Amino acid sequence: MDMQREPPFVPPASPLGSVPRTATGSEITVTNLSKTYGAGEFAKQVVQNCSFTIEHGKLTVMIGPSGCGKSTLIRLLAGFERPSGGTITIGGKPVTGPGLDRLVVFQETALFPWMSTYDNIMFGPRARGEDTPETRAFAEALLQKVGLDGFRKKYPSQLSGGMQRRAELARSMINRPDVMILDEPFRGLDAMTKRLMQEYYANLYEEFRRTTFFVTTDIDEAIYLADRILIMTNIPTQVRAVIDVDLPRPRHVEDITENDAANAIKMKALGLLHEEAMKSFARGSKAAADFIDAYARRMAKD
Amino acid sequence: MLAAVKAMSAKFKGFIFGDDFWRGIISIAAFLVFWEAGSRSHAWSGFAFPWVSQVPAPTAVLQEMFKLVQEPSFWNSAFLSTLRVFEGFFAAMVIGIPLGLAMAVSRTFYGITFPVFEVLRPIPPLAWVPASIIFWPTQELSIAFVTFLGAFFTVVINVIGGAQAIDVRYFQAARSMGSSTWDIFRRIILPGTLPSIVVGATVGVGITWAVVVAAEMISGGGSAGSVGGAAGGGLGFFIWNSYVGGSYTQIVAGMISIGIAGYISSALLRKIGQWMTPWLSED
């Protein structure tokens, strides 16, 4: 099937002209955030006293050892869950629940199978009664930008994995959210497709400059995309280090692999991540000791 | 355009001359030969096949069918049964789909209606025949009602199951993009349930054929039975009447007619279903 093949990435000329850039003042501030699941002896603290900021219009990438509580942080930012302590504000306003100012792109596709690519992208505008010439022109522009112009009438099941991810990015982008939250969006794609997706995504980001929180476990992806990298500790999550990535945009994967600054960042980040990973092994035995301790206390009570 | 025609003709060829086609031909031919030989074995060799020898031979049935298709009363019967099937079937769709959707969407409504539904569901449609004859003013209505019951429960169960199986992520995604409750119903729940509605309809129409025939036999063929003579009361009544009259070839011919009618109904619904759910087809 020819539709399964990924076309090569060609940076398209911007057809967007008058599309407004991101609204001002959507900086995210996380202060002393903590989240605990369960209660009493069985309480598990996933996020502890975590503070950081996500700058307005910048792409902040969070990277940390697996199982460090990244997904919990995303659910808290999205407003799907309430924190146990601390605050999250977006543009100065506290987050109290899910809102139209934030859009989350999850790992798995949530494209509607019964809608064509075009109808999927137009879903948001139509839901809000905004099926106007402007949004339709925006949809056209996005279709071109993510290279799906020839696939507008196809259903998601007729698209390859990479195309589905791109359609989903376009479907989020058309709503012009102040903040975009992406939870390992390219996980599970093969290496070639993943690299292509990163190029498409970087291009989209550079066009719209939404305030973006991007979670990944891939250090190369982080350096290629980020303005700033947050390296997280093992569970309970805190920020271990903040690394600014001052590489000029637009970036090219080839340049980055041979760039000394990029390599220095990579070595530093890898060192920190290695330390955290080692801690998580050590923590494993402590967790077992904690469990036996808690169990013994419970038996004594009966 | 040309490519499309070529692709279509290739598909057609694949169906006509493909392996499955020939397997089908061989299987049906072998079945007919066995049947013919079995039913004539006594006359030929003196040995009677246990069950098959009681059945009229396919050649005799074919002759009977050839005679039948020239009789207007046979077509009248087939038409009456088809009418009853589709009356009951459409009523089941029109009432069953909204009911199933309402039960899937509203927890309160589900809590109120589901117990009654679950008590009535296991009652076989045929057990309703006597009550239905008493309750409805005409026999025609009684038969249509029993037919309706045959499809109704299948349709409702499929709609509820289909709506409840829709992935939560679709609701989350729609909500986060600003969908109202009505928008979610119209653009997520309805299309998301459509494949199950199609399945319910295809299975349901098969059940209505099974039910209509039995209902016609029990109720004596409905009001039209007395007017149209021996073969005027629907295919079920036709079979019963053939049995009473001792014409075994007619019985088998009637059975085969019902098989063909049921097959056509299901195939028709499957086609409509494919047309309504284009995202499920491969190409």
Q: Which descriptors would you attach to this protein?
A:
heterodimer; A: 302 residues; alpha/beta; Rossmann fold; six-stranded mixed beta sheet; four-stranded antiparallel beta sheet; globular; B: 283 residues; MetI-like fold; 2 domains
Walkthrough of the structure:
With 302 residues, chain A is an alpha/beta fold. Chain A has nine helices and ten strands. In chain A, the strands form two sheets. A six-stranded mixed beta sheet of chain A has the order 6-7-8-3-9-10, with helices on both faces. Chain A has a four-stranded antiparallel beta sheet with strand order 2-1-4-5, with helices on one face. In chain A, helix 5 packs parallel to helix 6 (191-208). The longest helix of chain A has 42 residues, at 260-301. The model of chain A is unreliable at 13-23 (pLDDT under 50). Chain B is mainly α. Helices cover 81% and strands 0% of the residues of chain B. In chain B, helix 4 crosses helix 11 (235-245). The interface between A and B is medium-sized, with 22 and 22 residues.
Describe how the helices and strands are arranged.
The complex is a heterodimer of chains A (302) and B (283).
Chain A (H helix, E strand, L loop, with lengths): L27 E10 L6 E11 L4 E5 L6 H9 L6 E6 L2 E2 L7 E4 L11 H5 L1 H5 L5 H13 L15 H13 L5 E5 L7 H18 L2 E6 L2 H7 L2 E5 L6 E6 L8 H5 L2 H42 L1
Parallel strand pairs in A: 3-8, 3-9, 6-7, 7-8
Antiparallel strand pairs in A: 1-2, 1-4, 4-5, 9-10
Helix pairs in contact in A: 5-6
Chain B lengths: L1 H16 L1 H27 L12 H11 L3 H34 L1 H14 L8 H7 L3 H26 L3 H9 L4 H39 L3 H6 L6 H11 L2 H29 L7
Helix pairs in contact in B: 1-2, 3-12, 4-5, 4-7, 4-9, 4-11, 6-7, 7-9, 9-11, 9-12, 11-12
